[in-house]
Amino acid sequence: MDSIGVLMACPMNSYLEQQLDKRFKLFRFWTVPDKSLFLASNKDSIQAVVGNASAGADAELVEALPKLEIVASFSVGLDKIDLAKCKEKGIRVTNTPDVLTEDVADLAIGLMLAVLRKLCESDRYVRSGKWKKGDYVLTTKFTGKEVGIIGLGRIGMAIAKRAEAFSCPISYYSRTKKPEINYKYYPSVVELAAHCDILVVACPLTKETHHIVNRDVINALGPKGVLINIGRGPHVDEPELVSALVEHRLGGAGLDVFENEPYVPEELFGLDNVVLLPHVGSGTVETREAMADLVIGNLEAHFQKKPLLTPVV
Ligand code: 8YV
């Protein structure tokens, strides 16, 4: 397969890069000085694109690659891929579901604990020597808090299961009620936010879910409420979130994702009721390796004309 051109859209993971390099003719898009020139010269050899949560395959890239057969994403989220364009052109698309579910759900619970129990802030208290001058402030109990989840897919369910172990009543919003699920369903995100203590964003990013957490939702969650976002930055109207936190209209937030990564609104840096992470939901050695194996497995299956392991399109 070493004559098959594979374009990696951005740096992702060194193991994935090595494995792609071993098997295919690998092009690293981020090292290319003139992208248009590069695409024009290599358009006849690139048959696959590997994208992720930061860079994928938009309509322009798909149009520029007439021999493109497959886009294999090193992510479960598909928001950086123009799925309609791929469908129209008969280009296959795969992602990496399941293998990262546990890690992302673990991180969501970690963020809930970190915000309510002020784990990062109290760690800073010890490191700065402030403990010697007095005990740390009391924090907020997590066990038993009402957890509301936007999007009850694989990751949402894994978060619910974990929160149940902390005796948290679970409620959710999704486009339609899931008849087989016993958690309380709210047909609007505002209603869900008004009835929970912790609101978690765990749905895919689409046109419909862009800014699904807006000013009304934030106000409904209220000054004691906590927002956890392990989905995508654009799920949340970020300027609204920042002003609500600064004005204490929202109790706190645990954020793994931001609207304009890696840029994070600096107003958040001085707040002790927020925990800010650099998009690390799936970021364990084990999971990133499993994601890479799935990307390779899908590409190999495609070029050997076998069924794809995790097809989307
Ligand atoms: C990654 C993700 O952060 O799966 C997703 O949708 O956001 C992530 O797992 C990313 O794609 C890794 O490069």
Q: What's the helix and strand layout?
A:
Blueprint lengths: L4 E4 L5 H10 L1 E4 L6 H8 L3 E6 L7 H6 L5 E4 L9 H7 L2 E3 L6 H16 L2 H9 L19 E4 L3 H12 L4 E4 L10 E2 L3 H6 L3 E4 L13 H7 L4 E4 L8 H9 L5 E4 L18 E3 L8 H19 L10
Parallel strand pairs: 1-2, 1-3, 3-4, 4-5, 6-7, 6-9, 7-8, 9-10, 10-11, 11-12
Helix pairs in contact: 1-11, 5-7
The chain binds 2-keto-D-gluconic acid (8YV).
2-keto-D-gluconic acid (8YV) binds next to loops.
Features of this protein?
about 325 residues, alpha/beta, Rossmann fold, 2 domains, five-stranded parallel beta sheet, 12 strands, about 35% helix, binds 2-keto-D-gluconic acid, NAD binding, NAD(P)-bd_dom_sf, glycolate pathway, photorespiration, glyoxylate reductase (NADPH) activity
